Amino acid sequence: MTPIPSPARDRLTTEPLVAHLATCHDGRPHAAPVWFHVRDDAIEIATTGRKLTNIREDPRVALSIERTEDSEPQWGMTVRGTATVVESESEAISRRLNAKYGADEGTWTYD
Known about the structure:
Distance between the termini: 26 Å
Strand content: 35-45%
CATH architecture: Roll
Oligomer: single chain
Number of strands: 6
Structural class: alpha+beta
Order of helices and strands: HEEEEHEEH
Number of domains: 1
Strand order of the largest sheet: 2-1-5-6
Largest sheet: 4 strands, antiparallel
CATH superfamily: Electron Transport, Fmn-binding Protein, Chain A
Shape: globular
Helix content: 25-40%
């Protein structure tokens, strides 16, 4: 796993931003908004449905994150890599995401 450079880590951890996860489906990109959390040198998301199926079939992914202020882009970055499905951590990841984004406990859970 490649370490996340400090400047990028600072931008990814200072506020709850929405990212767009791009996966592959039938040789075409599939993008969807997701919440994310940085833990160690991994970017965690919790997902189900088409995104999860896509990752299981082809783990190559990209995550696009942008910060805007009054609809003006302040910065943006794209992270590319290989996803790992960690089902044993799904509840813990959901709790970390809920805490980061201010969701009520149990509001957003994933199978």
